[in-house]
Structures are given as C-alpha cells and as structure tokens.
Amino acid sequence: MGLFGLLVMLGWINIYAAVYDEQQVKSIFDFSINSGKQLVWIGTAVLLITLILVADYRLFENLSLILYGVFVVILFLTPFIGKEINGQRAWFEIGSFRLQPAEFAKFATALALAKFMESPNFDLTQVKYQLRALAIIGLPVALIMLQPDTGTAMVYSSFLIMLYREGMPQRYYVLAISLVVVTLAAIAVENNLYLVAGIVGMFVMFFLLGKRNWQRLVSFLFLSVAFVAYTYSIDYVVGKLPEHQQNRIMVLFDPDIDPLGVGWNVTQSKIAIGSGGFLGKGYLEGTQTKFDFVPEQHTDFIFCTLGEEFGWMGSLMVIGLFVALLIRLVILAERQKTRFSRVYGYCVVSILFFHFAINIAMTVGLFPVVGIPLPFFSYGGSSLWSFTILLFIFLKLDSHRIQILGRLS
C-alpha cells in the first residue's frame, strides 16, 4: 500500500508538471487543469480502496464469473453506443468524465481466469484446458479489437505470464518468441533470402546436434517450411495494414521514416528524456515539457516529464519503485494458500509488468507507440481506478491468508 501511495503521488505531481504553464500559473489543486481532475480521481480511488477492504473476500470469488459476463456485454455494446475519440469508439462519456470499459475488463478477466483455474481437475498440460483458458482471454480481446483499440487488446497477452507460472508447456513460449524474432527480422531485413538461409541453417544445426532419426528430420523439415512461408507472408500482411500503422512499426527500425508524423512522438520523447541528463533540469523546469513538444505528455508519455525534470536518478528511482512493487506482489502470490488467490495475484503482476515495461519501452523507441498508460502515473480516471481495483482485490485476498495464519498460530 505504501508503494502504491508513493507511485500515485509521484504521478500526480508529474501530471502537474506536464500541464504547467509559467505564463498562466495555476495551483496543482485547480480543478480546471488535469492535476486537479486527477486529484478527484485519486480521492474516489481511496473510496474504492475502502469499499474493497471492508468487503468480504469471498464476494470477489463468488461474483467473478458474473463480473466477467457483465463486462463482456459492455464491451460488446461499446462500439455501438460509446463515444468516438481519435477513430476509436472505446469510451463512455458521463458528464465531463470519460470511462473506458476495456480497462475495467482486465480485473474481471483476471477473476474469471482464477475462478476457472481453481478447479481441482484443472491441468494446463491438457489441450482442452489450454483452449478454455485462452478462450476466456480471447473473448474480451476480440471485442476490444472491434472498437478498435490495439494497445489495450495487447495488454491481455500479459496473462500468458500467469499461464506459464501455472504450467503452460514451455514449447508454446519458445514458438511464440521465435515468431516474434522472425517477424522483426523479416521487417528489418530487406532481402528475405538471408533470413530464410538463416532459418534453414538453424534447423539443420539442431537436427545434426540432436539424436538423428526420420521422425525428427520430418519435424525439422516441416518447421523449416512453415517458418519460411511465414517469413514471406509478413510482407504481405504488413502491406495490408493502414499506412499509419505501418509507419508505427517501421519507425522502430528507421526513426526518420516519418519525422513529422509517427516518428515525431518518439523523437521528441527521447530528446526530452536525454536532455534531463543525470540529475534532471529540476521540477517544473523542463523545456520540452513547457513548450508541448511531446504530444500526450500527461498520459502515455508521462515518463518523458519524469526523465527531463528528474533525470537518470529520478527515472531509476521510479523504475526501482515499480520493480519493488512487482517483486513484492510475486512474493505475496507465492504465499497464497488457495489457487484462486495465487492465479489472481499473478494476473495482477502480469498486467502491471506489461504496462510498466511496454510504456517505458514505447517512450524510448524500443516498442511501437500503442497507447498504453504507465500504471498510477498517467493521467486518467479509468486507468487509475482499474489499476487500483486490480491491486486491492489481491491485497484483500492476501489479508484473508494472513487472518488464517493468525488463527492457526
């Protein structure tokens, strides 16, 4: 709870820095600017925390499937009745506030997975259970893509981290990582013949190093052909994407491909972070921040403000706080006495880690700009509420474990 509170407060003061205007200085508490609005969201988040902590822990397990069903219906309705912003119909507008249902569907999906996987017969080594777990994850992803919101949909892939902990076979992860590597290589390498030669050579090497038999040879030949076909299909698939999405991918390999368009955000973001140096320019002294060089600096690119004004040391401190929180949550998840609590705990870890890693990678040009907020830092009620609910449901479940241990002692 202490780490949570510290991260939220640091996020709040950085939101103020991102919207600070020295020509028209306003108080951090002014409700007409984003820092004041965020303070309202923080206050209501405290109310949500109170409600979660006073509730019976069994409530979350008993309502898990109902909550999942409710949010599936809401996600289905969102593309039809939601408000369209930047080409995405992903928000519900309530007065001057907006809520994004896809953010709240994350904790509902985590609860549904935990409920499904707590069955004594559940075994992730069996294909039927693998498919059912993936179906629970895949349904909200498919509905979110109808909005369309690729960034939020990608977050649901973080549940694969939890599935790995619970026994999903390693071969699937090796295959997935291999496909990612081949995909990036196929995009980066102009002549696919070199890549194809490398793929075939790799499979031949593994065949020669291992126990050689006809079954193994056929398997390697099949995989070689499949990977080669996949390599040549990438150009076709990427070519069918809208131009702005193609540029978001290509800017990873060539930042100058669209310097005034897609490349602008990443370039200015790196300039802002780099200009902070070791100790930063000082709070409210960031020039890139003051003159709005980085778009969406109070939301997806909030890390730029931190890097420019607090420098390498400030960035390291915040990254250290996130890492400490994640390690603490892993420890708590491993201590759980029920599979439901452990699975849900690892879902929390997976989602927070994915947001944290991808957001920072995005701001320094290591990942495409996909619109993923930094937990507890980025401006927005939906993200703050959803992360708060996600985290404190787990802390409530953990408090029940502590109560059991107290009675036993």
Descriptive account of the structure:
The chain has a 3-stranded antiparallel beta sheet with strand order 1-2-3, with helices on one face. Helix 5 runs antiparallel to helix 16. The protein contains 17 helices and 3 strands. The protein starts with a helix and ends with a helix. The protein folds into 2 domains: 335 residues, no CATH class; 72 residues, no CATH class. It is mainly α and 409 residues long. It is globular and about 75 Å long. The model has no long low-confidence stretch (mean pLDDT 85). Helix content is 70%, strand content 3%.
Q: What's the gist of this structure?
A:
It is built from 17 helices and three strands. The chain is mainly alpha-helical.
